[in-house]
């Protein structure tokens, strides 16, 4: 499922989309909030420049919005229909879920966005 060369591997691990040999981020832990979005300038293995153009990752905001909507709907469905909680508690749970998942969503949205434009290259990976 997460074999090297798949988009899912690059998205979930935050590895370079071209070679998938190293992380795009300076800090591997997304819970280190001051450094959650600090990225390396380029991949030291294949040389891919992550900031393809100025303000490239602004487009990741749209991906982030979609991910947050999906997480919010999932939290609502789980609380309201499965746990049968009241509406007030359900919305508090949605907000708490979105706050807790924020660092992960920030990285996943960037990972998804760059993977929309850059494909895996087995020659760059050295296979």
Beta-strand percentage range: under 5%
Anisotropy-based shape: elongated
Radius of gyration: 17 Å
Distance between the termini: 19 Å
Largest sheet, strands/sense/barrel: none
Helical segment count: 4
- Residue-averaged pLDDT, rounded? 93
Helix content: 40-55%
Which structural category do the helix and sheet elements fall into? mainly alpha
Ranges where pLDDT stays below 50 over 5 or more residues in a row are none
Order of helices and strands: HHHH
How many beta strands in the DSSP annotation? 0
Note down, in words, how this protein is organized.
The chain contains 4 helices and no strands. With 127 residues, it is an all-alpha fold. Helix 1 (7-13) crosses helix 3 and helix 2 (60-82) packs antiparallel against helix 3.
Short description:
The protein has 127 residues and is mostly helical.
Topology summary:
Elements: H1 7-13, H2 60-82, H3 87-117, H4 122-125
Helix pairs in contact: 1-3, 2-3
Main traits of this protein?
127 residues; mainly alpha; elongated
């Amino acid at each position: 499922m997460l074999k090297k060369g798949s988009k899912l591997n690059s998205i979930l691990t935050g590895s370079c989309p071209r070679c998938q040999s190293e992380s795009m981020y300076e800090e591997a832990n997304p819970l280190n909030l001051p450094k959650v979005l600090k990225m390396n300038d380029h991949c030291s293995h294949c040389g891919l420049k992550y900031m393809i153009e100025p303000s490239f990752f602004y487009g990741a905001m749209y991906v982030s919005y979609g991910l947050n909507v999906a997480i919010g709907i999932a939290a609502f469905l789980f609380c309201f229909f499965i746990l049968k909680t009241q509406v007030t508690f359900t919305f508090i749970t949605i907000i708490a879920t979105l706050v807790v998942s924020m660092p992960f969503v920030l990285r996943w949205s960037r990972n998804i966005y760059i993977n929309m434009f850059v494909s895996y290259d087995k020659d760059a990976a050295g296979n």
